[in-house]
Each structure stands twice: as structure tokens, then as C-alpha cells.
Design brief:
Shape: elongated
Strand content: 35-45%
CATH class of the largest domain: Alpha Beta
CATH architecture of the largest domain: Alpha-Beta Complex
Number of domains: 2
Number of strands: 13
Number of helices: 3
Largest sheet: 4 strands, antiparallel
Distance between the termini: 62 Å
Oligomer: single chain
Structural class: alpha+beta
Helix content: 10-25%
Amino acid sequence: MSRVGKQPIPIPDKVNVVYESHRLKVKGPKGELSRVLNADVDLSVKDGIIQVISSGKMKQSRALQGLTRTLVSNMIVGVTQGFERILDVTGVGYRVELKSNVLTMSLGYSHPVVYKLPEGISASVGKNRIVLSGIDKELLGSAAATIRKFRSPEPYKGKGIKYAEEQIKRKVGKTAGKAV
């Protein structure tokens, strides 16, 4: 059995949780999220606590217990506090502009890269830094990964878009390793 899946999830005072026929709806001060859960797991919502219950018949249902617990917990954290992902843009001439919900990036290509933010994700742009925020952790991570993919960081000069906490292993060039 999953150790993570057995842990109860406390429901904060400002959060309203509705669960019926494998559909979970969580409403809080920042917004509302809903998700269809797998039929192999079930939820018990009592006295301000959510407990994830596995059917226990198959190995897959026991494995899904921990995943479901984490997804439900992320939904509750999202509607109460929200999530944030920070991207750093490094490179000579690399710029990012935000107009309404469209990011326009100059990343060394012959054309600007235009990315429309998904519904529910907001961004703020500082000097060489993009801060994405939203209540859905899965959608936020997907948007951050898509933006990073436009110009992945390269190991020789360190140019590109990287996560703020990411460490880029730098490599020496061809000429640095040769002895005279």
C-alpha cells in the first residue's frame, strides 16, 4: 500500500469540496478546479478531512492511491495559495514582452516567438525573468515546459530559457582542452 496515499488531506475553512460519482470539485478563494478521478480509487470526505481509499483488488489501484492523494492535495493548495513557476532568460539580445496574455520573445531566431498563455495562467515579466502563476499545477508546469522548449539552455555559453532553480552544467569548448 502507498504510504503517501494513506495520509489524510485537511480541508481549510475557506475551501468547499464536492465529490460525487468520481468527479471532484474544489472551490476556494482563488478559484475553482474540477477533476475526474480514476474508478479504482474512491474518496471519503468527512469532518474537514479527505481520505483516499483504494479498492485494493489490483496492483494498479494501490499505485493510483498515492497519485490521487497528491492530485487532490495540489487542487486544495491551488485554490487557497496558488502556484508559481519562475523562468530565467539568458542571452545577448534575448527579450520578453507581455501584452495582455501573449508573450512575445526574441530568442536569437530570425523571427519573434509568440506564445499565447493558456486560460487560467497569468504571467509577469521583469528584466530577463518570466513569472508564471496559476491555480492548476499541471497546467502551469505544462506552460512553463512549453516556454522553456522554445530555447532550451545550452551547456557551452549558458544561453536559453531555464527554470530559476535549475543548474546548467557548463562545458568547455574545443579549444580549451588542447595543450600547446
